[in-house]
Design a protein that fits this description.
about 350 residues; mainly alpha; two-stranded antiparallel ribbon; globular; disordered N terminus
């Protein structure tokens, strides 16, 4: 094939450069064309080609970057009903509690006989100046600490026991524990008072204590309440820790046994570290429950014991608010309890995070 030269070739080049309809550009292939892949590229030009230029598609990275923003509200929409319920049941009462603690709010204000006045931190100053408040706070902290330690010890020991016994004893222990857990606090407290009754209780007869009154002395009354609190609280720890132990691979425990580790060493060095996130949850939950004990103390010690010797903060707040009609002081005690529990929880979580552990 010969290459056209002369005027005809020049006219053809002029028509192609002018973009006349129906013409095409042939790009030579090879190194001279700058196409490393080689080959001819045909591109129709002009209106007759029937093609219109389209903008380049949006980069995939930009599309992916917009997806989280677009779906950011979706989880909140699913959580909205629960947040509304929690706001009504928790946020608003806490707000009212804090508001009343800054007011002069007694029976006179409740009945409308006197106007409600703003006292600022006056209620807290009165509370902190009361020596009985500090005695009750110390008793509450020590009592709650004893309950938490005993509950965790009993619950963890029984959880380990569940992994050692056969199916029938395990089922019997689980049913008994769940029965204690499901018993209402006021019912369990009444039953325990009857069991330790100095006149008709079977415990004194079995122990040969005669007419010894468990609720007369301060420490014996606290001990009796502690036993009841542990009795109705350890099933939660037992079931939770047992589920965590069952999730530990059997090879890990078998390796510790082959290395000659005793059961206590296996628990302390292998099981407990692997269960630490679960133990954090049950510890915080136990602290919250035991620090705000009310029903057991109120029922078993008849409102706080003789001369208030068995008062805890929750019962003390009840007496101030309803027995003395000092609702603002009772609210101030409630706010102090809330702040203490928040501080204990945050400090405990901070210590766990500092160790580099995931919750």
């Amino acid at each position: 094939m010969t290459k056209a030269t002369g005027p005809a070739a020049g006219a053809a080049r002029d028509r192609t450069a002018a973009g006349e309809p129906g013409t095409a550009v042939r790009v030579p292939s090879g190194p001279a064309s700058g196409d490393p892949a080689g080959g001819a590229v045909g591109a129709a030009s002009g209106p007759a080609s029937g093609r219109t230029s389209r903008p380049a598609s949006r980069p995939a990275s930009r599309r992916a970057a917009r997806r989280p923003g677009q779906a950011g509200w979706t989880p909140w929409l699913y959580l909205a009903p629960a947040l509304v319920v929690l706001g009504g049941l928790l946020v608003y009462p806490i707000y009212q509690l804090g508001l009343i603690s800054f007011l002069e709010y007694t029976q006179a204000q409740v009945s409308g006989g006197e106007p409600t006045t703003f006292k600022g931190f006056g209620n807290y100053a009165t509370l902190f100046a009361d020596g009985q408040f500090w005695q009750v706070l110390l008793a509450t902290v020590l009592f709650a600490a004893a309950c938490v330690v005993t509950t965790l010890g009993v619950g963890c020991a029984l959880a380990v026991l569940l992994t050692r016994v056969r199916a029938v004893p395990r089922l019997a222990l689980m049913l008994a524990a769940l029965g204690a857990w499901a018993t209402p606090a006021i019912t369990g407290s009444t039953v325990w008072v009857f069991l330790f009754d100095p006149d008709h209780g079977p415990v004194n007869r079995l122990l040969g204590l005669g007419d010894f009154s468990w609720t007369y002395g301060r420490y014996s009354a606290f001990t009796l309440v502690l036993l009841e609190v542990v009795w109705c609280s350890f099933p939660f720890v037992m079931v939770t820790v047992y589920a965590g132990i069952r999730a530990i691979p059997a090879e890990v425990l078998e390796a510790a046994s082959l290395d000659g580790a005793s059961q206590w060493r296996t628990w302390r060095s292998v099981t407990a570290p692997m269960l630490r996130p679960i133990l954090v949850v049950v510890t915080i939950q136990s602290i919250i429950w035991d620090f705000k004990v009310f029903t057991q103390i109120y029922v078993m010690t008849n409102g706080g014991g003789i001369a208030g010797q068995n008062l805890v903060l929750n019962v003390y707040a009840y007496q101030k608010a309803f027995a003395s009609s000092q609702y603002s002081l009772g609210s101030a005690i409630g706010v102090v309890m809330l702040l203490i529990l928040l501080a204990v929880t945050l400090v405990y979580l901070r210590l766990i995070r500092r160790r580099g552990e995931e919750l």
